[in-house]
Amino acid sequence: MEGFDILNLFIVLLSAWGAGALIKRIGYPAILGELLVGVIIGPSLLGLVETSSTLVIISEAGVILLMAYIGMEINFKDLGKASWAGLLAAIGGFVVPFALGYYVVTLTGGTSMAGLFVGIAVGVTSLATKSRILVDLGLLDTRIAYVLMAGALISDTLALIIFAGLSSFIDVGAVNMSEILLIAGKIILFFAFATAFGLYILPRIGKWMASRNIENRTTYFTLLLLIVFGLSELAELVGLHGILGAFVAGVFIKDGVFHDKITKDITRVFHDVSIGFMAPIFFVTAGFHVTLDVFKTDLQLLLLIVGVAFAGKILGTVLFYLPSGNGWREGLAVGTGMNGRGAVEIVIAGIGLQKGIITQEIFSILVFMAIITTLSVPLLLTWTTNWLKKRGELVKQFSRQGHIILGANPLALLLGKHLAEANKVMFIDANKGLCENARNQGFDCVHGNILEESTLNEASVKDFRTFIALTVNNEINLLASQFVNDILFIPEKFIVISPNKGEGGSINLLSSASASTLFSSKVDIQPWIQKVQDSNYKEVEVTITKQIDTRDWVKFHESKNNTLLPLVIVDRSGTKRPYRYNDSIDMNEKVIYIE
Amino acid sequence: MEGFDILNLFIVLLSAWGAGALIKRIGYPAILGELLVGVIIGPSLLGLVETSSTLVIISEAGVILLMAYIGMEINFKDLGKASWAGLLAAIGGFVVPFALGYYVVTLTGGTSMAGLFVGIAVGVTSLATKSRILVDLGLLDTRIAYVLMAGALISDTLALIIFAGLSSFIDVGAVNMSEILLIAGKIILFFAFATAFGLYILPRIGKWMASRNIENRTTYFTLLLLIVFGLSELAELVGLHGILGAFVAGVFIKDGVFHDKITKDITRVFHDVSIGFMAPIFFVTAGFHVTLDVFKTDLQLLLLIVGVAFAGKILGTVLFYLPSGNGWREGLAVGTGMNGRGAVEIVIAGIGLQKGIITQEIFSILVFMAIITTLSVPLLLTWTTNWLKKRGELVKQFSRQGHIILGANPLALLLGKHLAEANKVMFIDANKGLCENARNQGFDCVHGNILEESTLNEASVKDFRTFIALTVNNEINLLASQFVNDILFIPEKFIVISPNKGEGGSINLLSSASASTLFSSKVDIQPWIQKVQDSNYKEVEVTITKQIDTRDWVKFHESKNNTLLPLVIVDRSGTKRPYRYNDSIDMNEKVIYIE
Question: Which residues of chain A have pLDDT under 50?
């Protein structure tokens, strides 16, 4: 039995870190750098590192933890809400390349089992760079982005379910009816047990631990590891692969089972350990198994599989996307966006190689296919979305919509009126009178303490897109924003900061709450509240003639006129968004301010 | 090459978790349960699990991460401040059992190398239950507690240095002068490089990353793993054991290198991964290597080594402790408290076994020695400290002393006056006038924003024992306490909470700041500040005749008299502590309140 091999682990981790950081700089996901550096330092090129027990075991443990983490990040409630369009894209983008991949392999002499593996591998979708590329291309608020995200999630789940069915037959080989029934029975038992465990037993464990005031994060971490390893082993016992059990375990470790804060903390630890330590070892060593000879010996098959991956994914998406009524051009954009392959594909290909179902050549081709398709995503997606943009067919969409505003003072209500034109607006205030006043003006208002989870639940805060803290008290604004950030995910948090209000109000804290400043600068809102209260203000709308940063616009106007408070920016379609720091006002957008 | 062995990993982790949880309930450290359950489920008894590559590699990785974590927890500044008494106890408690252990082994026919290993193993000190047992025995504030903590840290460091010197000779075998010089040169080079890296290069990396606004926790985690593995491998290359490199890496990952919050976060991740996952695998599998036959075949040696461990540690401590002038009885208490062995001993014994320096019998004896000595600590320490208590020789001591009070209002100054009788008191206020007023009354006061790190540094907040937030603003109190808790370690945090002050003020947040309520109940302090300001109050001192909880005392008085604010509790030696929730007032202690 070999001992712990620090040297190779160090070299592999260092290479993964360096390559991941470099590739992320040019906008690609770390996994691409990890695969490439694995090919480079591995036996096929430089031969700097050879695989060892340590690398194998750490990377296999990493895959288990990674799949659990991927499961944790999938929210079935979100999947349920996923649009019809996302479902169509996912199915079309899976089924067509899956079928094509299967036929390519079987028609070129591969086994049908190898065909199924390659089919899954070309069918899988990975959001090439998660939201990063969508941010870079300014797509985050478009319908395409939501279709892509829903599509990738559904596709992952679909691929894993099919892989589940498939993997259970791997070890059996000969397949007759009674064996199929036995296997199917075992699988059904597994999922029945896992579901019962996840929906009934796990929440009870959570409640029991909460009732005993166990708050030690390490205890929860160990417990969740046990659940992940336990379900993983159980999956192996019924003939499924361990990664499926880990994935299912991750899916059930969700909101409501433990304290929200504990769940969030532990998810981050799983992220750190898998993405920051063990999974990169897997992806680099996956590169070790790649042989460059395929470019000579199997170039045709390589081109064929890559071609099938491209054509199947993109055309399949376009085709199945037609019934959505969103047009084939948007389908094309979605198809190009879903063309990347990543972690799940490499994991499945690795299992195929390990079990001897696919050859090293096919494995190498699948790795290059992942690299090439992922490389294509930013290029093709830029083309297709620019095309849509030019034709005016880039449709905006918000899955989380609406604004939650803390503080129902007159200024907040004025802002709320603007925002409510296109979106849900919900107020929270601890003052009963202010809340009633807001209700009289037709708003929803929850009367309660923002720092209590019950208030957040009553206001369904977590379904909102924006959290705005607009009280006169810096500390409340900061604390509320931090509290919301600690236990929920809300994409945008804007808070009012008053200048020189003594203690509190440190801008440093903004980053820990990942919030930015409403109105784009420190403002004492008390006088503004008074002005609005007394109707002693004038609302002005100006059209911007040249793109400008929100901060610069305020600075420019401050230099001329000190008494101006920008409320919202109106985009060209008429939609209003709060005026805040670190935003940019495009040409022809309007600013509405009061003075 | 074996693949990843989930089943055995699951069984071992589950056993570790269960046994650790059980043994912690009766006040012992988890490692004791892990060793015992390892003996039980391992080959020597039930034979449920056998060792596998997965277990070996995960446990060796765990030892590396554990040693890095132990290094992170050692603060050389604290070591520098460690008392003369602690140093004496550590040296005496190490040298005497070390020598005795060495002679027992060599005189019974063991090699001198085995003698040195056993010497280190019996010499090591582990604080059996860290602070847990000290809390249970009510010793946390005594001089003994500080001597014990300093002693254990020094002893760990001492043991590792001697082990460093020793381990470099293991692989060489024959020892002549030129070889010794070569080895010594390599070791010096290693430590010179590690020190230069830790003191000069690492802080620069930290600054560079801060300057590039890299705040991604996972990036830092991977970086620290690379540093730990890198120094660990470097140590191996110069002939030292990898655990030394990991330990040294941990020591240098300290305050000031990275953002305090990042360092704290990453330290917790190392804690979760080592203590919550990998290290327990090591300790359980250590139990696998134990043979119960030693009770038959080597009972004499077993008794001899356990006897030497007890007698050497306790008598050595008593003897060397005499020059401290704290008396031999206190030395005896310190000796019994330092009698436990734990992680470091098992790690060193494991290395000895792995390298073939000690036999499986000696290894088993060392494991039993760890179990027995650790079991003895609570019993013996209870006896010896009760004896001291009865003789009135249990001396109190605070290493972190003093109170930092946020808010320099008249009520705060009144509380400060009481606390300043025996301790340093420092005020922080953002209001210049209040701060000057405090200075006029002879207090130190830092004028600044509590939420900025510069203010905390100016006030040297981290050297204080107690943080008291006494402003009229709930949110400032909470936010400040949370901020202090996020970036520093301050043992006690007490904050004022006003009732029904609208938003904010949720008791829920107290736990996330690990603070408790000053005055033991929600109080609106504004009227009290006014009363003190106008000298319109009366100070009353009452002696308590029966032990009572602070909350109950307040409830009892509230039912009779609503206008009373308890300030401090005076213990029998005349020392005053702030009146707060979740404290108990002993018989003959006094309460000073105002009305």
Answer: 501-506
